[in-house]
Amino acid sequence: MSAALEQLRESYDNRHQLARQWQGEGRQLCGYLYSYVPEELIHAAGMLPIQLTDCDDRETYLQGKEYLEDFYCDFACSCLGQGIRGNYSYLAGMIFPDACETVRTTAAVWKLHAGTPFFHWFATCYEDTPGSRTFFHGEMLELKGALEGFTGRAITDAALHQSIRVYDENRALVQQLYALRQLPAPPLTGRELFDAVKAGLVMPKEEHNRLLRQWLDDLAGKAGRPRQGPRLFLSCLIFEETISQRADIVKMIEELGGDIVVDDLGDGVRYLSRPVGDGADPIAALTERYLAAVPGAFRYPCERRARDLVNLAEQHQIQGAIAVIPRYCTPYLWEYPYVRQRLEEHGVATLMLESVESMTYAPVRTRVEAFIEMLSA
Amino acid sequence: MSEEIREQLAQRKRQTDEMRKRHTKEHYQELGEAKAKGIKVAWTPAGLVPELLDALGILSCSPENYSALCASKQLAGKFCEAGELRGISPDVCSYGRCIMGMMWENDGPYGPMPRPDLVINDPTFCDAHSKMWEIPSIHYKVPSFRLDGAFRFNGSVRQREIDWRVSELHRLVGFCEDNLGVKLDYDRFKENIRMAGQVRALYNEMQNLRKETPCPRSTRETVADIFYLVALAHRQEARDYFTLVVEECRERVKHKIGIVPNERFRLFYDNIAIWYWLQFYDYFHERGAAFVCDAYSNAVFNGYYADGGQFDPEKPFESLALRLTYNQICTGVVPNLERYAQYIEEWKCDGAVLFVNRGCKVFTSGNLDKANTISGRYGVPILEFEGEMADPRSIDRVEVEGRASIFLEMLAARAQPG
């Protein structure tokens, strides 16, 4: 295995330990949720952006459930539980975007109980209109001002330009990895790709870029394994630790002979959807980029999303789509029947797996195995 | 003399109850006849912008209101099932499941909902309101418009949030004019806002009169009153109705005749009404426990006026933008906690009933902190139970009544001297 990939995996597995180490070195870490938050602004403020991730500790998850009722998604409960129990005590700041109704509550309860010194609510827009652009530009400026107020240092345009370059380079590097996954004989598995991408959520972007470049060098010229098995599309909100800890869905699919050709993970393809670019006004560039809706169910009309997914499926000759939907995730639950119908009309078989903390390995494996066998027949 | 006054007040209540039933039927009749008369119909979240749509010559239809009515007539269960059979998850809001079921079955308590010419959604309400309206838009092949806006996470309202909402309302006007061939009658819009302001002021007065002891109007009545704010706030019928309701409330306060005979305890109710089991309130009322205050009828549909706001008919777009912004479900947990504290204190509540509504995450949000505010700050005991507002399969009534009985005994014990 590539040393770079191994280091990426270790960085993710030891993320809290490493975060405390960085904090000990004098860095200020700022947590955030989902890819709606402009990490570049946090970075330009001299803070280290850290995306909240799931944990597999049941007590922590139950702590979150106590505050959020049991019909809130497990990911939110896990994040909140970690905040309340102090898993994220190394964070100097926390930014929540208006991503969904669950985040609205999670953010409020975090503010009340997790005690992060800097807290910011970041409003987002569902539509790209002149009015929303004006508003969202104001949100960017307000976040900038809040970060400056907390850190005590101005965020210069030069610093922002530099941060944008770092993050756009990261997007470009990850896109190169995705492009390798499209080869007839890809030199990396889906599991390896996702492990590399998610490591970038919890480490300095410069370091992530360095390791990705190193891994890409390792992959260059590496003989890949010819694609085999049914071509699959994985639809997944986030890296589903709840399902993946106990039932590592990506590894399971690949072990059972499925070929994950493309995905729409919030921190994968969706995150890469477009770079910020190096416009003269970096705040305007950030506004433009983050307003172009990262195409998740939260803020994409389901007809447009179904059309995009059908196009994606046709472009990549997808035979089957596996949708991992967090239980109680309202936006995905509302859109799924229509999206499924549209995919099936275009000859794409579908399988929905509802992700929930109590999910056990064997039934999931049976369903996935049957689905892949059906497609292989 | 007292009995005579009591009977007069009871008669006035019967009169307004009949008036409301008549207005409700007439409203659905009007919706049912719209197509034949060439009137455009828009499906929207409850009470979204009927004042504005009316000024565009568009009838506002609230399928949620219809599903609440459906539930009250014990029909929602079958429509929820019909929605689920078509793939709608049983874990999503029962209003939505019922609406989709009625749509696909082309049926409802007063017949099917009118086919819309436009569907409008609002993501600041909740995720269901952001997503579910796309389904009827696709089903009927009609345009869908998303009215964007900022969720009021903190208590303060920034001017640019209002500016954005105003721009969105203008965008909606443009969309309707371009897609439905209608034209905004700006004078009518101002008149609608003026009328709606009067209606809301009366409604707010009614809510404030509920602070009196004994309480002149309970949640049993006010959850039905909401119909006017949802559908007819800009119409004379609403002003006529609330004028009579406020007069009755004033008389009750003057003569100390409460809506609940022998009021012993004053209760706060949280969350949406259990539409298929409105007798839930009666259970408490029969035992002298009056629901004197509730978040649903107070802050959800009249949050702006409840928080001291007032419409300016000369600024109709801004007035509407403010009303949308102060809706409780567009407001974060932290500012809402202050509202809850105000309810307990100003309405002098002895106990609180928190309905943990699985169908509405936004309304149930922050329940633990609500409970801590209510009981921790004021020492007020709480009864909690789970269910869904429109799906009758979700509640075990015997079990809930058992809890209610114990809760009432606890209130009685606390009221004992020494």
Please tell me about this protein's structure.
The complex is a heterodimer of chains A (377) and B (418). With 377 residues, chain A is of the alpha/beta class. Helix content of chain A is 54%, strand content 12%. Chain A contains 16 helices and 8 strands. In chain A, the strands form 2 sheets. Chain A has a 4-stranded parallel β-sheet, sandwiched between helices. A 4-stranded parallel β-sheet of chain A has the order 6-5-7-8, with helices on both faces. Chain A is globular. The mean pLDDT of chain A is 90. Chain B is an alpha/beta fold and 418 residues long. Helices cover 58% and strands 10% of the residues of chain B. Chain B contains 18 helices and 8 strands. In chain B, the strands form 2 sheets. A 4-stranded parallel β-sheet of chain B has the order 2-1-3-4, with helices on both faces. In chain B, strands 6-5-7-8 form a 4-stranded parallel β-sheet, sandwiched between helices. Chain B is globular. The two termini of chain B are 36 Å apart. Chains A and B meet through α6, α7 and α15 of A and α6, α7, α8, α16 and α17 of B.
Task: Give the structure's gist in a few sentences.
The complex is a heterodimer of chains A (377) and B (418). With 377 residues, chain A is of the alpha/beta class.
Descriptive terms for the model:
heterodimer, A: 377 residues, alpha/beta, four-stranded parallel beta sheet, 16 helices, 8 strands, 54% helix, B: alpha/beta, 18 helices, 58% helix
Please describe the topology of this protein:
The complex is a heterodimer of chains A (377) and B (418).
Chain A: H1 3-13, H2 15-24, E1 28-32, H3 39-44, E2 47-51, H4 58-68, H5 74-85, E3 91-97, H6 101-113, E4 118-122, H7 130-151, H8 157-181, H9 190-199, H10 205-219, E5 231-236, H11 241-246, H12 249-255, E6 259-263, H13 282-291, H14 302-315, E7 320-326, H15 330-345, E8 349-355, H16 361-376
Parallel strand pairs in A: 1-2, 1-3, 3-4, 5-6, 5-7, 7-8
Chain B: H1 2-34, E1 40-43, H2 50-55, E2 58-61, H3 63-72, H4 76-85, H5 94-105, E3 118-121, H6 127-131, H7 134-140, E4 144-146, H8 159-180, H9 186-209, H10 219-232, H11 236-255, E5 265-270, H12 279-285, E6 289-294, H13 295-306, H14 316-326, H15 333-346, E7 351-357, H16 361-364, H17 367-378, E8 382-387, H18 397-415
Parallel strand pairs in B: 1-2, 1-3, 3-4, 5-6, 5-7, 7-8
